[in-house]
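WARN no homologs supplied; continuing
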Amino acid sequence: MTTTALLSCAGRPVGRYSYRPGTDGRPYLHPVTTLAGTPVTEERPADHLHHLGVSVAVPDVAGHNFWGGRTFVRGQGPTALDNHGTQRHLGWKLRDPDGFVEELSWEADGTELLREHRTVAVSEISGTAWALDFSFSLTNRGGRDLSIGSPATNGRPGAGYGGFFWRAPKEPAPPAVFSGTLDGEEAVHGKAADWLALAGDGWTLVFAGATDETRRDPWFVRTTEYPGVGSSLAADRRLPVAAGDTVVRRVVTVVADGRLDRDAAAAHVRKAVTG
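OK structure emitted
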């Protein structure tokens, strides 16, 4: 059984959020579309079967894989391990057409590592753009400190992915990517920026950190191998989460029809984040 929450904006469907009770994995948004109906997410693509639309995915939480696929092991490389955790849906605090509030438990080996409070909200920006406001808080409710890592912190340079992640659809030509001052995958990958735009065939996504801590996290960016953007929790060093502590992040994504230029992307972000 798959349970879903449907999202709409300006009377039009723009997203479906799904989770599978009692199974490994994580809840995710797919499909997400522009207001004109153009899909801007991908689910289980052939190049990475564990990429699931829009989700919170982390390769290393106290040694457990909440990303999917193989685990990068220092000195060995990507390795198939029996170390996968699951994000278990505990219940809805709110569920409306324009958003929801959800409680989740991050569990591995029968133990809850983190308790998550997730809030997702939809708002209209214009007749051709809307915003997805996605925030999550991860609390260590156990008695022991733990930390969040990435392939980069485990020895794979440049692979600091883990956190909010958006897998976009693969098209014949790679999408353009730019921030407020930089252009291209090599320039923007691994850099912190207030916002980052990914522009494909008839669509643009503009990602913005909406808190100071989120804006300090570098962006993980892929366009050539596959189109994907993430906000990295542990880009080059492990993120400690002491017993009782909470990590909070918030990313607002503008979903627009057409290809926005730099000025338009910045204007959309200002409206989406400040209202």
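The first helix runs from residue 185 to 188.
OK
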